[in-house]
Amino acid sequence: MVKDRDNINIYEFRSKKKINFKMIAIILIAILLIICIILTINNISITIKEYEVYKQYETLSSVLKYQEEERLKKIKEEEEKIKKERNPILTDLGRQNIENIYTSDKKRVFLTFDDGPSPVTESILNTLKQEKIKATFFVLGSNVDYRPDMVKRMYDEGHFIGNHGYSHVYSQIYSSPQAVLDEFNSCNEKVRNAIGNPEYNSHLFRFPGGLPGGKYASLKQEAKELLNQNDIVNIDWNALNGDAETNDLSPEFEMQRLSDTVGEKNSVVILMHDAAAKSVTAETLPQIISFLRDKGYEFDNFYSIIK
Q1: Domain tally for the chain?
Q2: What is the DSSP-derived secondary structure letter of residue 237?
Q3: End position of a domain, from candidates 24, 52, 84
């Protein structure tokens, strides 16, 4: 047994051991290389996927950007369209329409409110919105200063904003024909600022106190001619609710005056007031509208006249 042990070749054993270490090293290196290759391939795959996601995001972002640009473009086009529709242009047809305002084959009525905006304007606008009616407001420039938001709402909701001058002080307005034109221009500027439309011009004036008769009748006629020369026409009324006649108002009084003055006319321009002292008018407005509907009238405003 000892002999066999003595015959062991120690060098051969050491040589084999060295060969095993090399193989292990080679195998480890191979494994590391494989791992590196796998990791590299995996990283490349992740990078490709991330790039594809990025490209998808970039494409989606471009689509969304294009859609947003198109949306804003359409909004701007719609705003320009509305702005154009709400910028009255006085043509020969418009002048003719004003001259023939009280003549119509169909029953139509124009609700007009003077002297606003006022503390009751919101109530009037709420009723008109609920009833889906477009009216005409002859505003005072001095009152526009205090309630520009109400004038903007009138404009935005499609009501026609006419011009009633700036001050409503007769001695000032009717001091000369030029003073009347100046009053119109001052009010018009206030309206432009309130509605944010620097091109707006109603081309429509209502003389405080009306055009005919009175102390300033002669000067008003001269002023009318000067206004015409500046593409401004005027309009009065052929029916009223009586709120210009007294501050001691009641719904019964207003409805009776309305019935008496409307009569059987086909084309009616009704004088009413948008003023704190005339708050009964705002309260009675639903009843006024119902009365006119029952008589078969269609409601109109001066956008269909000034064109």
Answers
A1: 2
A2: -
A3: 84
Alpha-carbon dihedral sign for residues 43, 48, 53, 55 = positive
Q: pTM above the 0.90 mark? A: no
Question: In which domain, by residue range, is 225 found?
Answer: 92-304
| 226-280 confidence digits (pLDDT tens) | 999 999 999 999 999 999 999 999 999 999 999 999 999 999 999 999 999 999 9
Residue 29 Rama label (left phi>0; alpha psi -120 to 50; beta): alpha
Do 147 and 174 fall within a single domain? yes
How far is 229 from 193, CA to CA, in rounded Å?
A: 25
The closest of 237, 291, 227, 268 to 103, measured between CA atoms, is 268
pLDDT (tens digit, 9 = 90+) per residue, 70-91?
Answer: 888 888 888 778 777 889 999 9
How far, in Å, CA of 180 to CA of 219, rounded?
9
Claim to verify: residue 168 and residue 75 sit in the same structural domain: no
